[in-house]
């Protein structure tokens, strides 16, 4: 039989999460952000659960082609825009909308030969200092685009750096509005955190919202809020099995380096999951896990192919017992990916995206 580990994708959870986010900003249209293979869930499986979105936002032209091959005929937005001149030819052929965040992209558009003008989203750097035109250069960039026959409608966008914390969105929103208040075009500002925390402000939700991580059942502002607090459900469950059980005496060590030492007699289980599967190697002893739906914790270092768990809370556990590393156990109990990520000193985004190619992925519909 194959190694027992698998990632299970839940399209019903994706549908639920999308509906929850649509409710948070009922007057806005929703870009479902599906970059990075839909945050590790797989484009085809994610599309099955997110087809009720108004559009899809991503990075790669190949991902855009996949969506068109899945018969999606609605809007697709390239969040980083084009990277070279010939990309615009594919934008024309696939009818892609794209972000413009640098003068070089305007130059490419000015040289593009097309009979059909393109829809673009002009991005302002309102304070995050990644992509976008500085506020003092934004209107000049808009004027350049507006003068090009290759450009149709120009929408306006920015990205919040502090939507998930106490700083909030007010300062960046003030910058964006001060510069763009009299420019025509639709607006897109809110990511998952801005949508859930500030989406009741119609200026924040604007015309388009761009949820990403929340679609997949992770809280964008964990640990202040959990996914359950926001009414989100896990869209990915990483499950495996116990492949060995060991009986330890007091003083026995576990794993490389012996970083865990038993203080008493105890049973531990060995799970077929390690860092080569995408589980974080730096997850310390005490990282939560479910065995047979019962919460327990890891012990010792994570190995390439295995990790060990304390079976004290699960006396009936045996070789073959289900291990849920994050997500929903087959018995219904949920271990939030954010909780695992926080224990490992990272974020749910990384765990989703780091799922290794060797892990079989299936959908439970």
In short:
By secondary structure, this protein is an alpha/beta fold.
Query: Helical stretch count?
Result: 12
**What is the fold named in CATH at topology level of the largest domain?**
TIM Barrel
State the total count of DSSP E strands. Answer: 19
Based on the coordinates given, report the CATH architecture of the largest domain: Alpha-Beta Barrel
Structural class: alpha/beta
Kindly state the mean pLDDT as a whole number?
A: 97
Tell me the span between the first and last alpha carbons.
Answer: 24 Å
Proportion of strand residues: 15-25%
Whole-number count of domains: 2
The first-level CATH class of the largest domain is given as Alpha Beta
Shape: elongated
> Rg to the nearest angstrom?
23 Å
**Which spans have pLDDT < 50 for at least 5 consecutive residues?**
none
CATH level 4 superfamily of the largest domain: Alanine racemase
Please give the structural blueprint.
Layout: E1 6-9, H1 11-24, E2 29-33, H2 35-39, H3 43-50, E3 55-58, H4 61-69, E4 76-78, H5 87-94, E5 97-100, H6 103-111, E6 118-123, H7 135-146, E7 151-157, H8 170-180, E8 187-190, H9 192-198, H10 202-205, E9 208-209, E10 236-248, E11 253-254, E12 260-261, E13 266-271, E14 288-291, E15 294-299, E16 307-310, E17 322-328, E18 334-335, H11 337-343, H12 348-353, E19 361-363
Parallel strand pairs: 1-19, 2-3, 2-9, 3-4, 4-5, 5-6, 6-7, 7-8, 8-9
Antiparallel strand pairs: 1-10, 10-13, 10-17, 11-12, 13-16, 14-15, 14-17, 15-16, 17-18
């Amino acid at each position: 039989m194959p190694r027992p580990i698998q990632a299970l994708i839940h399209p019903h959870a994706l549908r639920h999460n999308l509906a929850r986010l649509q409710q948070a900003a009922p007057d806005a249209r929703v870009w479902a952000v599906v970059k990075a293979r839909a945050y590790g869930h797989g484009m085809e499986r994610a599309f099955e659960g997110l087809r009720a979105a108004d559009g899809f936002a991503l990075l790669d032209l190949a991902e855009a082609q996949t969506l068109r091959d899945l018969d999606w005929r609605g809007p697709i937005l390239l969040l980083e825009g084009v990277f070279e001149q010939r990309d615009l030819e594919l934008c024309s052929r696939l009818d892609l909308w794209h972000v413009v965040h640098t003068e070089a992209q305007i130059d490419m558009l000015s040289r593009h030969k097309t009979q059909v003008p393109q829809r673009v989203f002009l991005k302002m750097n309102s304070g995050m200092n990644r992509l976008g035109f500085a506020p003092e250069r934004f209107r000049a960039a808009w004027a350049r685009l507006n003068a090009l026959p290759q450009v149709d409608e120009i929408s306006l966008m920015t990205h919040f750096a502090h939507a998930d914390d106490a700083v909030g969105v007010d300062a960046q929103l003030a910058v964006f509005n001060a510069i763009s208040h009299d420019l025509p075009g639709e607006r897109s500002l809110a990511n998952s955190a801005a949508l859930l925390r500030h989406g009741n402000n119609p200026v924040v939700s604007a015309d388009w919202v761009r949820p990403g991580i929340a679609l997949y059942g992770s809280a964008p502002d964990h640990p202040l809020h959990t996914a359950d607090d926001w009414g989100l459900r896990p869209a990915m469950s990483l499950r495996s099995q116990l492949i060995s059980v060991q009986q330890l005496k007091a003083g026995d060590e576990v794993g490389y380096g012996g970083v865990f030492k038993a203080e008493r007699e105890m049973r531990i289980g060995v799970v077929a999951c390690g860092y080569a599967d995408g589980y974080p190697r730096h997850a310390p002893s005490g990282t939560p896990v479910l065995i047979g739906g019962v919460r327990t914790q890891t012990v010792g270092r994570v190995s390439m192919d295995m990790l060990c768990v304390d079976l004290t809370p699960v006396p009936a556990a045996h070789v073959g017992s289900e291990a849920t590393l994050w997500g929903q156990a087959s018995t219904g109990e949920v271990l939030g990916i954010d909780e695992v990520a926080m224990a490992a000193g990272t974020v749910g985004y990384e765990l989703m995206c780091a799922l290794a190619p060797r892990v079989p992925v299936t959908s439970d519909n």
